[in-house]
Amino acid sequence: MKNFLSITGVSMILLAALAGNGGAETPPSKTDTIVLGGGCFWCVEAVYERIEGILDAVSGYAGGSVKNPTYEQVSTGRTGHAEVVQLTYDPAKITLEKILEIFWKAHDPTTPNRQGADVGTQYRSIILYKNETERRVAEESKRKAQSSFRSPIVTEIVPLTDFYRAEEYHQDYYRKNPYAGYCTFVIRPKLEKLGL
Fold first, then answer.
1. Pairing between strand 54-62 and 163-165?
2. Is the pLDDT of residue 27 over 80?
3. CATH number, position 180
4. Which of 59, 91, 143, 176 has the greatest number of C-beta atoms within 10 Å?
5. Which are the catalytic amino acids?
């Protein structure tokens, strides 16, 4: 009888614990965001979706003057927008410094308005900050990263004014289209190079 009561008690405690959150992982109490551009947003999104602590990676447009731009408009290079990714992250699991360390390795920040065969101002290297702390962290990270490159880093570090979510067919592009040509010949080799 004593064992029965012990087993019953433990079972009830476990059931109560699981019922409290449905057995799901508790969401972080604090999240933050940063907007980065390093060429085609499909590539940047694919990299960060594989990094622990990144909760969401959303492809979009920022740094331009046209309100609610479309992909077709941004592709002309005349709106001033860059293809970017808005990262939502858990600062308890990954720091902004670490996110930026990955950023410098995930693209070539020394080529103005170009990443590989993708050419145009929409493919420029850019960090868009929300506050002075992010600006300082970005500037310091850029300074440290410079020693890894022969040419000067040309990455813009500018205030974020607006972020516009890209069309749905751009979201999670690599995950949805792993065998598409761009994914096979550009994104996959990048992920392999980064060990992702």
1. antiparallel
2. no
3. 3.30.1060.10
4. 59
5. 40
